[in-house]
């Protein structure tokens, strides 16, 4: 009867097929937000979660990033290679 409203409802009110992804996110946040880290600013906490996700999903590589950083700083400061 209301095709536009029906399409909008399907787009914006979609039910998630599984709660696994959200439970995994909360579990990861629980590991980051420990008693020792209770003074982290929300922005810092969010950045840590994004970095953890990037490393876990292979979007960020510590080895590649470290090598690129060393090359960058050597070029910037004309340092001798280590």
- Strand residue percentage: under 5%
Helix content: 55-70%
Low-pLDDT ranges = none
Largest sheet: none
The helix tally amounts to 4
SSE pattern, N- to C-terminal = HHHH
Cα distance spanning the termini: 72 Å
What characteristic shape results from the CA principal axes? elongated
| Helical/strand content category | mainly alpha
What is the count of β-strands?
0
Radius of gyration: 21 Å
Count of the separate structural domains? 1
GO molecular function, one term: protein dimerization activity
Organism: Sphaerobolus stellatus (strain SS14)
InterPro entries: HATC_C_dom, RNaseH-like_sf
Pfam families: Dimer_Tnp_hAT
Structure notes:
With 82 residues, the chain is mainly α. It has one domain (3-77). It has four helices and no strands. The termini are far apart. This is HAT C-terminal dimerisation domain-containing protein.
Question: How are the secondary structure elements laid out?
Answer:
Layout lengths: L2 H10 L7 H13 L9 H15 L5 H16 L5
Provide a concise account of the structure shown.
It is built from 4 helices and no strands.
Structure keywords:
82 residues, 4 helices
